[in-house]
Design goal:
Length: 274
């Protein structure tokens, strides 16, 4: 991908920008300003969730940005306690109202949990069929969740959004998703800023005249992974989008793959049962 608006084509034909803007832990005026700045800088894809408590301000910032709605890609997510058929349809209406958007580009099941995701997925299929969402997907699904879901569903999720960064490279899940035309998307792509001093990344960054964060984000894109770094700091919002004038070599990608330690900053999906 050579520029910020470049897209991947999802398994239902919808185009989704490879680079998105994360909004977790961004609230109040901070999230409003951050989303406006991101759109000004050129981000065309915004990631939020009902649980982030910021859908109203994200929606307001989108409207005030002046960008044409059809040029933006907006993702939101169904929270765990709303899983189930009827409760999903209700929660979706609430998210849509808070965002102030007629159509959501991508709706995700936020976490699999243990026994309601299939019923929930039926409601997602209905939302898709009635045209309320342009695409439906999942988040934090392991291979066993996907295998189980695919056994009885009519639609294959377009996306699986999971924790993924150089300390958690998700190679096996990536392979499974590729085989099933599910686009992998990374959350906490920067491992929340914990890898900026890592020696290999610092050395690679110096070679390209880029920052550590830019090298990490380029590693996601060069592996074919959609990514959604979050920042509420204007110069970092810009920095994280200034990635389209270089590409990593295969050796640099392998070197960063080698940093994998199976280490997480978030909860393991098999441990979050509700
Ligand atoms: N589906 C899911 O379960 C989850 C989804 N997500 C989504 O993924 C997005 C990204 O993940 P997130 O957990 O926020 O973590 P990130 O890996 O994107 O890191 C964000 C942190 O890194 C800092 N940062 C951002 N850019 C830079 C930079 N260039 N240099 C140094 N530090 C930087 C930010 O600081 P500052 O803001 O102060 O600039 C912030 O503290 C979320 O915002 C959310 O949209 C996240 C968690 C779970
Ligand atoms: O996206 C996320 C961040 O917020 C939640 C907690 O409040 C996490 O569980 C979730 O994965």
């Amino acid at each position: 991908m050579g520029n910020i608006a470049d897209t991947t084509v999802l398994n239902n034909g919808v185009q989704m920008p490879w680079l998105g803007f994360g909004t977790y832990k961004a609230e109040g005026n901070e999230v409003y300003e951050a989303v406006k700045t991101a759109i000004e800088v050129g981000y065309r894809h915004i990631d939020t969730a009902a649980i982030y408590g910021n859908e109203e301000l994200v929606g307001q910032a989108i409207r005030d940005s002046g960008a044409a709605r059809e040029n933006l890609f907006v993702t939101t997510k169904l929270w765990n306690q709303d899983q189930g058929y009827d409760s999903t349809l209700r929660a979706f209406e609430e998210s849509r109202k808070r965002l102030g958007l007629d159509i959501i580009d991508l709706y995700l099941i936020h976490w699999p949990g243990k026994d309601k995701y299939k019923e929930t997925w039926k409601a997602f299929e209905r939302l898709y069929e009635e045209g309320s969402v342009r695409a439906i997907g999942v988040s934090n699904f392991q291979v066993h969740h996907l295998e189980d879901l695919l056994k009885d569903s009519n639609m294959v999720p377009v996306i699986n959004q999971v924790e993924l960064h150089p300390r958690l490279t998700q190679q096996e899940l990536h392979q499974y998703c590729r085989e099933h035309q599910i686009q992998l998307e990374s959350w906490s792509p920067l491992m929340k800023g914990k890898l900026t001093e890592q020696a290999d990344i610092v050395e690679i960054a110096a070679k390209y005249g880029k920052t550590s964060s830019q090298v990490i984000l380029r590693w996601h894109l060069d592996r074919g992974i959609v990514t959604i770094p979050k920042s509420v700091t204007a110069h970092r919002i810009r920095e994280n989008a200034d990635l389209f004038d270089f590409e990593l070599t295969a050796e640099d990608i392998e070197r960063i793959n080698g940093l994998h330690l199976d280490e997480r900053v978030g909860t393991h999906p098999d441990k979050l049962l509700f």
